[in-house]
Amino acid sequence: MTYETILFETQDDVAIVTLNRPERLNAWTNQMNRDIVDAVRRANDDPAIGAIVVTGAGRGFCAGADIKDTFAARIDGDASGPPTTNWVTFMRGSKPIIAAVNGAAVGVGVTLMLPFDVLVASEQARFGLAFVKMGVVPELASSHFLVQRVGFSHASEMCLTGKLYSAAEAHERGLVNHVVPHEELMPKAMELAREIAANPSLQLGMVKRLLTENGSETDLELVMKREGELLNEAYASAEHQEAVSAFLEKRAPDFRGVAGES
Fold first, then answer.
1. Range of the domain at 95
2. Predicted structure pTM score
3. How far apart are the C-alpha atoms of 106 and 131, rounded to whole Å?
4. Per the domain annotation, does 1 fall within a domain?
């Protein structure tokens, strides 16, 4: 399938989605939203894929919303709005996703990746929550996920100033997991993706669900109830049985071979 605003490819058990409007620093459009959702859904539906990497073509990762496609269109009376897919719910329910941030990530360029699982940045990356400078406010549950990732004080400064932060500053604040030289960005992201993809998809989904539901939960009884329910389901799975057998037989587990049997 050919997309208008992204590239999609697979390498072994990893799907790679590349934002592909380099002449506009991959500025976000409604079509890009639709394209990414479709590509991620394709990866989710492919049993051979275990993880997804999202990156940008050219110098930027995503330089924010395309002003003409979003803000100007809205002011001019275009009420069509963005696609109705719930981005956060969709991404938290997806196979593990890694952002490989190759350049500037501003506004929605940051908030689109906050529900992802692992963020890796090139030393050339820059991060900005510049909503206030456009007379708007953060979206995509970023006022929740940003606080979770960096804490209230850093989130406050980043959103209230709207300033750009270097990759090193973003890493220091806990926004990104790793910062690497630019030429090592995709190799590092692919290394992490393959390490994750080697694990059983069923249990990866369970872990994501628990982190999503329990990350801000204060009722510890409810936290343990959710864990216990999924743990019982995991104990009965073919993937767990394969892991135990592989350990006893001193071999690597073959989770793909048992997928679908549980």
1. 6-197
2. 0.93
3. 9
4. no
